[in-house]
Amino acid sequence: MGMTNLATEEVPKPGEWPVDPQHDIAVTEDRIWIDGCFDFTHHGHAGAMLQARRLGKELVVGVHSDEDILDNKGPTVMTLAERGSVSAVDACRWSTISIPHAPYVTSLPWISHYGCHYVVHGDDITSDSGGEDCYRYVKAAKRFLVVKRTPGISTTDLVGRMLLCTKNHFIRSLTRTLSGDDGPGSQVERSDAAKEMAQRVRDYASDETGLQPGSLVLSYAETGPAQEASMGTQDPGSYTTVVDGALPKPGQRIVYLDGGFDLFSSGHIEFLRQVVKAEEAFARQTGWYDDTPTQKERLAGNNGGYGPTYIVAGIHDDEVINHWKGVNYPIMNIFERGLLVLQCRYIHAVIFSAPFTPSKAYLCNLPFGTPHAVYHGPTTFMPLTYDPYNAARDLGIYREIGNHDFQNVNAGEIVQRILRSRQMYEERQKKKGQKAAGEEAVRRRENMEKEAAALEKERAMNR
Q1: Global pTM?
Q2: DSSP character for 111?
Q3: How far apart are CA 126 and CA 363, in angstroms?
């Protein structure tokens, strides 16, 4: 469905549009259009959607097809299903609806069909295969708005980390970094960076409007080095509030889950979606949605009521993940991973620096109380020598999500996809003025991955 020339553009007929409605709806300035490739998600994508959502009351997100991206830019890392309507875009709390197969050159008939007056894009230039501006038509119609590009993160940056095996993106202590006491540069530079990072956390913790407080953000601290504590600690630890947010409502079940969430992808998102689905089924079985005075009270307040589940996501430190996975994992640091978890519509609270092993002392002393359930998914990315969830099992609250369509999509799989298409990505790096990896660097990455895989195999055999 490539559309790089307005004169030859084929506008879908009723019944042919990829997503309802099938007939044109009234155009309003409160309905905003944004589009893109959204190839393996980073917080810059979410930041653009947040800024766009703040300009209106609904956000329509167009997602280009694999074929259109191939014709205009090159092959994608993630498929359309992984990028768009099934996964990453639909999971963003500021997205109202996603439109797969949106034309690569933004089309006036398309945005008007879905009732959008304005199109939003970052302050960088996007060109089609002919070198022309992808937004030329909406610009000519004066229906184009510019938002700031998120600094410090891009697909190109992340590919560079993968190919060059760098670790300088790691954060030793997020708490100290957010206070300006840790990080590169002078004290003034660290202080300025800390303020910018703290503001971004507040922004990404906002509600579905992008304007009001939403998710609660905490930081956890425990005694002992992170690698020792990863095996479990009997210290309940302490919490620092990073961002105030909504607390659990009366009757809601508290659900805890944790992970690295590196290169936050369809594997993570589908796991979270399945957790929500499982909790919804439990709520229906236990009468949450029954027509009772209590349920009527829930629906009456809080802007349309609230759901049966409050999901808390624990996010592990960079040092802990690297201890278990090696190479230069995580590819995204804890700040970057945390922003992606925060922007996900399935999450209500985030705990930074959560322990790798949620012990009984930890689970029973969460600020929300002991969770009703602790969920884990079908991950094989980080084989261990022990079961981190023994305490949850002993408490009778451990739950497992079974196999799903995206279970093999994780940071390791994404890195392997990049390595298989290295030549194409190196050409993209050169065009953007980025350092190319070279054969020696790639061989080093491949050897490090083999060494890590051998260690994982040894751990699995000793388990």
Answers
A1: 0.89
A2: H
A3: 47
